[in-house]
Design a protein that fits this description.
heterodimer; A: 2 domains; eight-stranded mixed beta sheet; 2 helices; 28% helix; B: mainly alpha; 9 helices
């Protein structure tokens, strides 16, 4: 086989491979939709994070505004310190509320941010003070059972 | 009784010796690589033989694997009322596991055996010794171009496999079964992460490419110069490559999942 034909075939092959890789990145993966480039970090303490994992989404009004960067356990307060990386385009007031929600009944857990009314905004490495822990299903059920039992006693 | 232990010890020793010889071959390939890069058209030729000629088997099997994944996934997911998640299932299965692994197995069967048989026969017909007589290093001229061609080819083939497989899953899920097209792609994009899933699959395919090619080259280079020796070496290439790919897959996956 002469060299030009060989080069052409190999060129087609390499181009196909690169197109497939680009297709995986753009059409299958989240390289296009996940255009969060510059972020800033915000921390929040939770007494119980439930099943929250690093890289879980941080949403506000249902829109993904960032991701959970890391979760560490603090032995001074015996709380979980959750670090979130939030897209620079979005700013939140200082008294923003951070809740841990569950998507669906058994779905993944995510952090929901509810903006407060403070005129000052959260800056990089600030701490969100108002948090609400993950709902633990067992606790809910036991509370429900206790309340039912106390009703019956009355 | 002593004879028995002697046999076991001998078998282990010969395996370890072969491993050492393979490592030596690997490093001599690396050291001769600059020579073979100067004549890169040799590598281009090998990319044609290992890559372009493997395209048909890769594309056809990827399409069928994707279609089967679509059907099987739909059958299970519709029991839980979440048949829209079929896109995620097909994409994650292909990108993370099946793409690199099945491509590597096909690559070992299609290209690895050809490499072993070719080099084994060159050795049996004393072409390699003739090259050495002419002061041409057979490693620089024959072995290293095939090695680099394998490394370049495997990730490209694996990417093509994953993409075609996803298209196969799409063909089954959307036109045939009637899953919503928007949900198919959007759920896929929401759940397949570029850095974690696609890059990890790519790394896997590079590692499998190195493993498959080096095994094929070593078996050919090490084959006894007889017809029987070459045929046994070809068989060993498939067996060893397949085991190496599956074993490495477990090791790599366990590394990658420790996030």
């Amino acid at each position: 086989m002469d060299r030009i034909k060989l080069d052409a075939w190999v060129g087609i092959f390499v181009a196909l491979g690169l197109i497939a890789l680009m297709g995986l990145a753009m059409k299958v993966g989240n390289l296009t939709s996940n255009d969060i480039k510059t972020t800033y970090f915000v921390t929040a303490n939770f007494e119980n994070i439930g099943g929250l994992k690093p890289r879980a989404p941080v949403k506000s009004a249902g829109v993904v505004v960032g991701r959970v960067d890391s979760i560490v356990f603090d032995t001074k307060m015996y709380e979980a310190i959750v670090t979130m990386s939030i897209d620079e385009r979005y700013v939140f007031p200082k008294d923003t509320f951070a809740n841990i929600y569950t998507a669906g009944l058994l779905g993944e857990q995510y952090i929901g941010l509810e903006a407060g009314g403070d005129p000052d905004n959260l800056e990089a490495n600030d701490k969100i003070t108002q948090t609400q822990d993950a709902v633990v299903l067992e606790k809910l059920i036991s509370q429900f059972l206790y309340s039912q039992a106390s009703k019956e006693e009355e | 009784m002593l004879n028995f232990f002697e046999k076991i010890g001998g078998a282990i020793r010969s395996k370890i010796t072969r491993l050492g010889a393979a490592t030596r071959l690997f490093f001599s390939i690396i050291s001769y690589s600059s020579d073979s890069f100067k004549r890169f058209n040799l590598t281009i030729r090998e990319i044609y033989f290992t890559g372009v000629l493997s395209l048909v088997i890769i594309v056809v099997s990827a399409f069928f694997v994707g279609m089967v994944l679509g059907l099987q996934g739909y059958y299970t997911l519709q029991k839980y009322g979440s048949s829209e998640a079929i896109g995620v299932l097909v994409a994650l299965a292909l990108v993370r596991e099946l793409g690199p692994v099945v491509t590597a197995l096909l690559f070992a069967g299609r290209a690895g055996t050809a490499i072993t048989a070719e080099i084994g026969l060159m050795k049996a017909t004393e072409q390699l010794s003739a090259m050495e007589m002419m002061a041409v290093s057979p490693i620089a001229r024959i072995v290293a171009p095939r090695f680099w061609a394998g490394i370049i080819t495997m990730p490209l083939l694996a990417s093509i496999f994953s993409m075609v497989g996803i298209l196969g899953g799409y063909v089954v899920a959307v036109p045939m079964i009637g899953v919503d097209e928007g949900a198919f792609w959007s759920q896929m994009q929401a759940n397949v992460d570029f850095n974690y899933d696609i890059v990890n699959g790519f790394i896997k395919s590079v590692v499998f490419g190195i493993a498959c090619t080096i095994i094929a080259l070593f078996e050919g280079y090490d084959a006894p110069p007889t017809a029987e020796g070459v045929s046994r070496a070809t068989t060993r290439t498939v067996v060893t490559s397949s085991l190496a790919v599956l074993g490495l897959d477990f090791v790599l996956t366990s590394f990658m999942l420790t996030v």
